């Protein structure tokens, strides 16, 4: 019961800049004595601090309370092309951030060094401030219990990396892990465009393809925490072999890696182009580049239509590097959705582009740590 009341107070303080004890008594419907005791205990544990007094309005001036502005949270997001890191306050406002590029075939030790470099940077000049934890968004398969990145199809040298042990060992800060598409979805739920939405899907369209499914307000994880692998659903049974070993996966056709490979095969360019370059070629009138992007959009649209038919979401959020291609890709996605989605469900769904940008995954990893303090109702299961 005490924890339940504590969470009411903490979350009200998260949603408001300052509140007095009287405000908290009114908004929680708890009695004044309970609030006094809760605040005493939260000040002792350091999560709540005083912030001066409200101007007097007749009676005694009320002491203002706030979340400890010196509590910090870190989120890291490991992708196939970059590592992004943020350090935020208790409300998710970014104090500092850093992004370092990597390549899909980069050596494991080099990736670890870059992760440490980002953390060193984020932890510079924090003085007496307290870091509550580090959230780590990892691609592929994760052993959450032991804090190990087990396997990532899009990072060829990234296997069995004991990331928690490495980071906790060096920084002495707790480390939590989650799949990178899911942290992008979590960021939308906690900070982004789906705060008050119970049923939504975030499509992570990047070097790999994933999704985060929020069903009745809760992140869907599945029986063995593997739910959401939309990239490995079959959209063309006679299609290409995917890096997961199966034939015809969405990711084998439309990921950043696949698009780059396809252009290489069809146009035989003098060197390998990445998606950003191929997108630029398409904009400049390169028909091969345009065709590949349109086909990719079609298959993403088919997969999205299947999700709409299966889950009847209120919102679909498109996020990830491929969305930077812009209208050419998005128009063919929408056109395929219109063709293949069940019309009744299609009428109910709204499409959005993430506004969290390159730090969406890192912000979601940050929210994973915040969950340990604020216990968001959208997360279930041990991490
Ligand atoms: Zn696959």
Description:
With 383 residues, this protein is of the alpha/beta class. It has 3 domains: 2-67, Winged helix-like DNA-binding domain superfamily/Winged helix DNA-binding domain (Arc Repressor Mutant, subunit A, Orthogonal Bundle), CATH 1.10.10; 71-185 and 360-374, ATPase, nucleotide binding domain (Nucleotidyltransferase, domain 5, 2-Layer Sandwich), CATH 3.30.420; 195-355, ATPase, nucleotide binding domain (Nucleotidyltransferase, domain 5). It is 41% helix and 22% strand. The chain is built from 13 helices and 16 strands. The chain has a 5-stranded mixed beta sheet. The protein has a 5-stranded mixed beta sheet with strand order 14-13-12-15-16, sandwiched between helices. α1 (2-15) crosses α3 and α9 packs across α10. The protein starts with a helix and ends in a 9-residue tail after the last helix. The mean pLDDT is 94. Bound molecules: zinc ion (ZN). Zinc ion binds next to α7.
């Amino acid at each position: 019961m005490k924890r339940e009341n504590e969470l009411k107070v903490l979350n009200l303080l998260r949603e408001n800049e300052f509140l007095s004890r009287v405000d908290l008594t009114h908004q929680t419907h708890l009695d004044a004595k309970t609030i006094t005791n809760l605040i005493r205990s939260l000040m002792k544990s350091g999560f709540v601090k005083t912030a001066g007094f409200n101007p007097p309005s007749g009676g005694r001036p009320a002491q203002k309370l706030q979340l400890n502005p010196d509590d910090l949270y870190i989120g890291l997001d490991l992708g196939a092309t970059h590592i992004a890191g943020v350090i935020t306050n208790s409300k998710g406002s970014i104090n500092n951030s850093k992004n370092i590029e990597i390549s899909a075939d980069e050596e494991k030790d080099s990736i670890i060094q870059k992760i440490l470099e980002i953390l060193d940077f984020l932890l510079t000049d924090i003085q007496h401030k307290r870091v509550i934890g580090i959230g780590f968004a990892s691609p592929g398969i994760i052993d959450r219990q032991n804090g190990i990145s087990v396997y990532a199809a899009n990072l060829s040298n990234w296997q069995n990396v004991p990331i928690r042990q490495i980071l906790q060992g060096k920084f002495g800060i707790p480390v939590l892990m989650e799949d990178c598409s899911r942290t992008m979805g979590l960021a939308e739920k906690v900070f982004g465009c789906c705060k008050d939405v119970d049923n939504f899907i975030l499509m992570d369209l990047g070097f790999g393809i994933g999704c985060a499914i929020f069903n009745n307000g809760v992140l869907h994880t599945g029986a063995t925490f593997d739910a959401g692998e939309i990239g490995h659903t079959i959209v063309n049974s006679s299609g290409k072999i995917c890096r997961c070993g199966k034939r015809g996966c969405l990711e084998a056709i439309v990921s950043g890696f696949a698009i780059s490979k396809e252009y290489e095969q069809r146009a035989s360019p003098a060197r390998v182009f990445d998606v950003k370059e191929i997108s630029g070629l398409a904009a400049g009138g390169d028909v091969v580049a345009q065709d590949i992007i349109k086909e990719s959009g079609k298959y993403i649209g088919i997969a999205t239509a299947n999700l709409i038919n299966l889950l009847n979401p209120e919102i679909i959020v498109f996020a990830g590097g491929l969305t930077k291609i812009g209208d050419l890709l998005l128009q063919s996605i929408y056109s395929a959705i219109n063709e293949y989605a069940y019309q009744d469900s299609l009428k109910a769904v709204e499409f959005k582009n993430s506004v969290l940008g390159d730090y969406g995954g890192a912000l979601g990893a940050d929210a994973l740590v915040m969950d340990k303090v604020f216990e968001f109702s959208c997360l279930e299961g041990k991490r």
